[in-house]
Amino acid sequence: MNESAPVHSVQNSMVKHAFSLKNPKKIKDAEDFLCEGFHLVGEAFASGLNLRFIFATPEAQATDEGRKLFELSKKEKTRWIPVNSKIIAYVSDTTTPQGILAVAQKPAARWPSQPLSLILCLDRLQDAGNVGTLFRSAEAFGVQGVLLTEGCCDIFNPKVVRSSMGSIFRVPFQTSQSEESAMAWLKEQGVSSLALSGTAESLLWDLSLPKAVGLWVGSEGAGLSEDLMKACDARVKIPMQGKVESLNAGVAGSLALCVARQRLPFS
Questions:
Q1: Cα angle vertex 212, ends 210, 215, to 5°?
Q2: In this predicted model, what pLDDT tens digit does every residue of 1-51 receive, in sequence order?
Q3: What are the angstrom distances between the C-alpha of 85 and each of 53, 199, 254?
Q4: I need a surface site. Which of 34, 123, 155, 264 has the fewest CB within 10 A?
């Protein structure tokens, strides 16, 4: 039987392990990450992730979604552990938890496979919501993979996981890349690099795009470094009106991916 005895104490070793996965310093070196809420637990199952165990309140299990996930956990032989709402609140990274969360093994990093047409490159992007949003947009617009340089927010930060809505389970990624190594890999694959910059003269939709593009999106404040932009094949921008000086990195990157995808063939 996959259902274990109820857990009531925050001193339980599994509760301590789950709680530690909220700590940014612990997330980086941990083999596991937190997957919270009905949708994400379901997406983790659907994506074939290895779920170590699931915490769920009786109220969450009694819902239609909860019953489906409970049956799925039995099928996949995943430990289902009843807990009270205080345990969920203690472990949860959200203000209004849904009463269910899982500890899952991190999917392994992997390089995008050929043929390539669109790669997303994130440079020192530190806002978890933006990173998660861009993973979700990457999947929506057929990006083959996401490269993240050193200094980017950890993709298994609970907020990144939630914002991605499960896309980080499916989109190939490589993390902690130096700008030089990421750029070298793109060149080896025959992928041209485009720097998204508010100071660029060319508009993305006016540029003649090559067959394979690596779109670079920089940090929320400083943007891309001058050295990185010089190493790119071209700089492009999104035109804006009014007094708006810049767009949120997640919004800007998503718009650019949408435009690029319209002009590139799906691989």
A1: 95
A2: 477 888 999 999 999 999 999 988 888 899 999 999 999 999 999 999 999
A3: 17, 50, 37
A4: 264
Collapsed DSSP state (helix, strand, coil) of residue 144: coil
Domains, the chain? 13-105 (3.30.1330.30), 118-263 (3.40.1280.10)
Sheet-wide strand order for 32-36: 32-36, 100-105, 51-56, 79-82
CB 3 within 8 A of CB 82: yes
DSSP state, residue 104: E
Residue type, position 238, single letter? I
pLDDT tens per residue across span 60-112: 999 999 999 999 999 999 999 999 999 999 999 999 999 999 999 999 999 99
Can you read off the two tokens belonging to residue 84? 């009270």
Strand partners, 146: 120, 173
Note the pLDDT tens digit of each residue in 146-182: 999 999 999 999 999 999 999 999 999 999 999 999 9
In this structure, the number of other CB atoms found within 10 A of the CB of residue 162 comes to 20
Say how far apart CA 59 and CA 127 lie, in whole Å: 33
Per the prediction, the chain carries an average pLDDT of 92
Nearest to 148 by CA among 165, 129, 134: 134
